[in-house]
Amino acid sequence: MRFVIVTGMSGAGKLTAQKMLEDLGYYCVDNLPIPLISKFVELILEPNREITKVVLGIDVRADQSFDEVQSALDELKKKNFPYEILFMDSSDETLQKRYKESRRMHPLSPDGRVIDGIKKERAILKKIKSESDYVIDTSKLLTRELKAELENIFVKNESYNSLMVNILSFGFKHGLPSDVDLVFDVRFLPNPYYIDELKEKSGNDKEVRDYVMSFEESRIFLEKLNDMLLFLIPNYVKEGKNQLVIGIGCTGGRHRSVTLANELYAKLKDQGTFGLKIEHRDLK
């Protein structure tokens, strides 16, 4: 029996995750009254039951205390019933945006500001998040990427990457990305923009890549950046960070930053201890 409890921040994708897991063969039950959790577990454990994979969705409701959830889970532990907790999370900014677009009220702040409900919910869920087996931050996750992550964890039983690293190339003249954690400025490198045959190409083209990486400064910078990140990332994981956005910027975001972002991605992609994505914000 594989028993998965799906919880997390309202608006972070709990229902989406549950529907995906249902498509993957899990029997899903959402928002079962807390006092019935133990009884539900007893029922699915009865002999001759064909159910072997179960998902139970739990969220914060204004009409019930989340302490009851913790008590119910503690009871399952005492009975040595194995379960896993999947916590769906997103940044406060992303959650606010989603609520604004959907025009829905936050369950913990029906008559007030959405951000107040988000802060209240985050405080309530702090303990269960710290005890979760898997934390998936959907702030920058595409639907297909979420599905692939769930398949890796709950179908293929592959190792779980608790940290998603996003490598983002950008151009300073278009503004600094608002969600970036680490920024690296590569405007110190020679600019292919001033070479006629390279001007209209990008860092995704071999000619530009070869030009940028022909300089010793580029190769040294890449090695030092790679070494620093391989030191930082395990420490971020240890501190419970779920999302790391690494910004690499040049003037326009087409040549040097794209090249270095691609090269860094190639160096980090086989590490296997964290998820990895790449995006070229200003390439178009």
Describe it:
The chain has 284 residues and is an alpha/beta fold. The chain folds into two domains: 2-154, Rossmann fold; 164-280, no CATH class. It is built from eleven helices and nine strands. The protein has helices at residues 14-23, 37-44, 67-78, 92-102, 114-124, 126-130, 143-154, 196-199, 206-212, 216-238, 256-268, and strands spanning 2-8, 27-30, 53-57, 84-89, 134-137, 164-171, 182-185, 243-250, 275-280. The strands form two sheets. The chain has a five-stranded parallel beta sheet, with helices on one face. Strands 7-8-6-9 form a four-stranded parallel beta sheet, with helices on one face. Strand 2, helix 2 (37-44) and strand 3 form a beta-alpha-beta unit. Helix 10 crosses helix 11. The longest helix is centred in the C-terminal third of the chain and has 23 residues, at 216-238. The protein is elongated, with a radius of gyration of 23 Å.
List keywords for this structure.
single chain, about 280 residues, alpha/beta, Rossmann fold, 2 domains, five-stranded parallel β-sheet, four-stranded parallel β-sheet, 9 strands, about 40% helix, about 20% strand
Number of domains: 2
Question: What is the CATH topology classification name of the largest domain?
Answer: Rossmann fold
What distance lies between the first and last C-alpha atoms, to the nearest angstrom?
Answer: 49 Å
Order of strands, widest sheet = 2-3-1-4-5
Alpha-beta content class: alpha/beta
Strand content: 15-25%
Topology, number of strands: 9
CATH top level of the largest domain is Alpha Beta
Shape: elongated
Return residue spans where pLDDT drops below 50 for at least 5 consecutive residues.
none
**Average of per-residue pLDDT values:** 89
Order of helices and strands: EHEHEHEHHHEHEEHHHEHE
Indicate the CATH architecture of the largest domain: 3-Layer(aba) Sandwich
Compute the number of helices: 11
- CATH H level of the largest domain: which superfamily? P-loop containing nucleotide triphosphate hydrolases
